[in-house]
Amino acid sequence: MTDDPRDVQGNAGPEVEGAGEASEPSTGAHMPTMERSVMGTLGVALMGAGLRSARPIQKIVLGSVGAGLAAMAATGRNPLANALKIRQSADGDTLVSDAVTIGRPAAELYAVWRDLAGLPRLMTHLERVEVLSETRSRWTVKAPTGDVSWEAEITADVPGERLAWSSLPGEGIENSGEVLFRPAPGDRGTELIVRLRYRPPGGTTGAVIARIAGEEPAQQLRDDLMRFKREQEFGSEPTTEGQSSGREPATSSSPKAGQA
Amino acid sequence: MKAIIWQGVNKVGVENVPDPALLLPTDAIIKVTSTAICGSDLHLLDGVIPSMEKGDILGHEFMGEVVEVGRDVKKLSVGDRVVVPFNLACGVCDPCRRGLFSACDNSNPNHRMAEALYGAVSGGGLFGYSHMYGGYAGGQAQYVRVPFADVGPHKIESGLRDEQVLFLTDIFPTGYQAAENCSIVPGRDVVAVFGAGPVGQFAARSAQMLGAAHVIVIDRVQGRLAMAEAAGCQTINYEQDDVLVALREATGGRGPDHVIDAVGMEAHGHGPGALVDTAKQKLKLSFDRITALRWAILSCGKGGTVSMPGVYGGLIDKLPMGAAFAKGLTFKMGQTHTHRHIAPLLGRIEAGEIDPSFVITHRASLDQAPELYKTFRDKHDGCVKVVLNPWA
Ligand SMILES: [Zn+2]
Ligand SMILES: [Zn+2]
């Protein structure tokens, strides 16, 4: 039941063949003492929170993540980075990538992504993108400490195949990314691959805490891609928001009951 | 409206809740005329399926009359009488287009929760079956919101009674798919069915419809075995007999050509690895249920199929893979692709090949449902299948 073949080797090889950047080895396994103690404390705290939680799902998720953290802090060998699938390049950048197959032609999907000002609709961590010229744009994200903004440049643009960008040196959070559009075998539409690279504030520990808090870009990216797929294929997101349940007070006069 | 509400582990009650409303233009609202309690609802009752929340409306086997449609609904109109598959499917994603409706990519808004728990990509949403399966309100109620209304609901235009078509929503297609997965050679193959609950009953009769030379049903509840015997099946009571010896004897030592595991493990919903510890305690409770799958593998004849309509949720210890390998068995499993079975099975009902109402032992109102959940769980009073009338 390994959902990700990369896990088998415990490192992050190139996830997709034949396009884009060269292989990025993960730093994998060496956690400094300071990080180890932070991890251990966090792990034990999470296990405690999990055990105290009344919600079974929280009990399971918090408890097991906590146990994982504590165990890894104890061994000090294999940092959470691997367990939580946080991948890093040799020079400390965090790498995030994911892929989704969408039943639409590559040209159409590419056109949606090429409209940079519309990107915040696809990538929810983005607050806004202002287009400055054919290749320059200013990107803004909301952060707990206030908005962070940087100027980015399109570094590759092959219509219907690939779009890549990079922040300009010395600007906000250093980051870059690319989107690949590949025809899927058969009549299944387009394989969309997104790769992001950034330097998180707070290093590995920052990335781990962000991941546990559910605000880590890997999860956001997965959600963003699924939402994009659902919009493109079905036209909207499925929802249960606003449906009836025993959590809402019943209205005194039930309009449809009258039809009985 | 009245609805059956999950109020906590082993607590089910009838409550007045707000009527459902259209939430998307592709939704319809259905006035429920008949609904049923499913064996898998019992996993919700005893709390082994995680991510239920107090106040959730239960129920995934229901049918009724369309009373409202969203502006994008094209195939349904107010007044149509429909049966509704228990699983939700968008109809346009790759799995849906391949007929794998239960594996729909797009119908579960909480896919991330399911992925976290299973450790793998999840299937689609289900009505009334926990938040990891989408958190959709169920149909044990007077009205229900039906999303993807052009994809799931199937119109019933003949004069068949509710009780004859209601089980097209789940247990009939589930039993049928289990038999179909066996690729039965008509007139030659012997099929054994472990579990004589509602799905086992339909699996056995579907195996007969698909031409099985002989069908053997294994259970321990006498009333259930009698129901299978009434259909012409041979039965084995595993509390009175050594199942493996009895099956060898019944098949001249070859073993059944195909075995259907209609028991399943209690679906703990635990994911792999990190969640195992939490699950271990419960695994003890479900020990005898794993035994059904083990028996299925050990008894199945060479080159046969082990077909699993029963629900499995996590990791399994001590599966006899050596036996499976030595005999060259094929495993087929998975949630039912209900949508694709409804029309052909409705045809069989209309042709008089089968009357699914044979399985009903209890009929009740919504108010009586909490009590009948317990009767069904404890297999008291000969209970095999309960049908509820929300307007009684
Ligand atoms: Zn069911
Ligand atoms: Zn679908």
From TrEMBL, chain A:
Stored InterPro entries: COQ10_START, ORF3, START-like_dom_sf, YgaP-like_TM
Domain of life: Bacteria
Annotated Inner membrane protein YgaP-like transmembrane domain residues: 31-89
Pfam family, one: YgaP-like_TM
Occurrences of domain Coenzyme Q-binding protein COQ10 START (ranges): 102-225
Polar residues bias: start-end ranges: 237-260
Annotated Basic and acidic residues bias: 224-233
Alphabetical list of Gene3D superfamilies matching this protein: 3.30.530.20
SUPFAM superfamilies: Bet v1-like
Coiled-coil positions: none
Residue segments, region Disordered: 1-32, 224-260
Protein name: Cyclase
TrEMBL record, chain B:
Protein name per its UniProtKB record: Glutathione-dependent formaldehyde dehydrogenase
Family stated for the protein in its record: Belongs to the zinc-containing alcohol dehydrogenase family.
GO molecular function, one term: oxidoreductase activity
Swiss-Prot/TrEMBL keywords: Metal-binding, Oxidoreductase, Zinc
Origin superkingdom: Bacteria
Xref: SUPFAM superfamilies: GroES-like, NAD(P)-binding Rossmann-fold domains
Zinc keyword on record: yes
InterPro entries: ADH-like_C (IPR013149), ADH-like_N (IPR013154), ADH_Zn_CS (IPR002328), GroES-like_sf (IPR011032), NAD(P)-bd_dom_sf (IPR036291)
Ranges where the Alcohol dehydrogenase-like N-terminal domain occurs: 25-151
